[in-house]
Sequence to fold (361 residues):
Amino acid sequence: MRIVVNDIAATPGAGGVYSILSDLYNQVKKSDKDNEWIFILAGKYFQETDNIKIIERPDLKKNKLKKFIFELFNGYKFINSYRPDIYISLQNIATLKVKASKQIVYLHQPIPFQRQKNFSFLKISEIKLAFYQHIVGRIIKHSISKVQPYTIVQTKWMREAVSQKTKLSKNKLIVEHPFVNVGSSKEIHVKKKCNSFFYPASGYLYKNHALIYKAIDILNCNGINNFNVSFTLDNLKKHNQKNIRFLGHIKRDKVFSMYEDSVLIFPSYIESFGLPLVEAALKADIILAADTEFSHELLGNYDNVYFYSYDDPKKLAELMLKVIKGGIVSDGIPLAIKDNGQSLLTTIKNIIGKGWGSVYE
Fold:
């Protein structure tokens, strides 16, 4: 069987989207020697094997308009030339007119489906996000409605939102959150008083670092200075540096050590999953999280999370002060996950298995 995977969007250093691609490649390389896999990528990021081929299309990565034309109008000719039995898009969009027995889309772009924020083309800081919400979002919804692919999402809220905003049949929407790897250590670090806070996130507007800056200013104005907040951003040199540490990009083991010594602040209001919430909760950490659909879905039964509105810096400042004074302490009980996800390859196998019988037995 021949399986063609399209992921022009993912490049090294692109964060989660590249991790999804890399994990799938490694899973295939390790455990599937029977089927032929063809990866259409922007570059030759992985080694080819006897049953894995890499097709490079850097031109589609460089030109967004050309990429959308490829997905909606003429890309099917290129893809069909490889005669796929199964076609998989890891980049949210279902390519039109592909001749494959099954199409699968991995949909991990939440911006067009969330209800918290309507981004505007009239605000410079929001133009890129407005493009994803209103232009790319329309393309995603149209392609999924037209093709009716099996669509993998990471959360129940995404399943409901995609169901409401497309014509995709619900029985083709599969919820499978990513496997959360917190390492081999089972040690729980219960904090008493803590004056260190941590927010591992990129600098996108909806990650909402601005709320933390405002909360810091509120604390400072009230004479509270004995704390620090660490960001995984480069030094912006725009804000009061006294209480802020800019760590830049840090490795995963450093992230986990930061959880042990700090309280997680998570003000983001748009996430497909929200991985740091689960990572920290599995260690019984205190979490100060924005009150959103995804945070409640992931932490609904967790007692060490404290919510605030994503646009209320005063409430966040109050919670931070309680942590600093020891008024908020973890009960030492970590989040319990009955089903800690599964590999993307396993999910793909399950989908294919519905029509391909004993191919993977």
Summary: The radius of gyration is 22 Å. Residues 355-361 have pLDDT under 50 and may be disordered.
